[in-house]
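can u do me a favor
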C-alpha cells in the first residue's frame, strides 16, 4: 500500500522561471502518523529571491546567504526519499522543482492531497491547503507542531500530513488503497502509456 510509508514533501522557491528551491522540508509518515523522522533545509539559489515571493514565504536572500546549495543536500534527499512514495498538496510542483534540481531523484509514487481532498470531501468552497486546513480544523495543530505559519515548508509539510491523515483515517483499508492510488499522479501518468 503506497500510503503506509511515505514522505510528505514541500518546497518554497525563489520566484524565478523555472523556480529554484530556497527551502525544502520532508516528513516521514508511517501508517498515517509521523515517524519522528523529518528534515528541513534553507537552500541558497543561484538567482536572487524575488520580492513577490518574499511577501509570500518571508524568505530573503539574507536568510539563505550561508545556506547550502541544492547539490550539497541532494544526496541526503535521494537517500531518504528515492523510490519512496511522496505526498504533497499539488505535488506536481514538488515533482517538477525537485526533479529538475536533482535529476536522479525518482519517487515511486506521488500522492496529491489536492486530488485526494476533492475526491474524499467533494463540495468544499476551496481546496487550497490554507482553506482546507481551516475548514477541517487542522491549522492550529500544524501551528502548534511547528511554531510557524502558512508558506513555510515546515508548516506546509505538517499541515499536509495532518490533511492526508484526516482524509484517509475514516476510510477502511481497501478504500484507502483505492483513494491513494487514484491521487497518485505518477500512477495515472504510467497508466496512460499502457
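np, heres the sequence
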Amino acid at each position: 500500500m503506497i500510503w503506509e510509508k511515505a514522505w510528505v514533501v514541500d518546497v518554497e522557491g525563489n520566484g524565478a522561471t523555472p523556480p529554484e528551491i530556497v527551502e525544502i522540508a520532508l516528513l516521514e509518515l508511517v501508517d498515517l502518523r509521523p515517524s519522528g523522522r523529518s528534515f528541513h533545509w534553507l537552500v541558497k539559489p543561484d538567482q536572487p529571491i524575488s520580492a513577490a515571493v518574499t511577501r509570500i514565504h518571508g524568505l530573503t536572500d539574507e536568510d539563505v546567504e550561508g545556506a547550502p546549495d541544492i547539490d550539497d543536500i541532494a544526496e541526503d534527499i535521494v537517500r531518504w526519499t528515492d523510490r519512496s512514495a511522496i505526498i504533497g498538496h499539488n505535488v506536481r510542483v514538488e515533482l517538477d522543482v525537485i526533479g529538475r534540481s536533482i535529476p536522479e531523484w525518482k519517487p515511486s509514487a506521488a500522492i496529491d492531497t489536492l486530488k485526494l481532498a476533492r475526491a474524499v470531501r467533494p463540495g468544499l468552497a476551496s481546496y487550497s491547503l490554507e482553506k482546507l486546513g481551516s475548514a477541517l480544523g487542522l491549522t492550529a495543530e500544524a501551528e502548534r507542531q511547528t511554531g510557524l505559519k502558512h508558506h513555510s515548508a515546515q508548516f506546509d509539510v505538517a499541515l499536509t500530513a495532518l490533511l492526508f491523515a484526516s482524509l484517509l483515517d475514516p476510510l477502511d483499508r481497501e478504500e484507502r488503497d483505492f483513494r491513494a492510488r487514484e491521487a497518485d499522479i505518477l500512477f495515472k501518468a504510467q497508466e496512460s502509456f499502457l
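The longest strand covers residues 21-30. hope that helps!!
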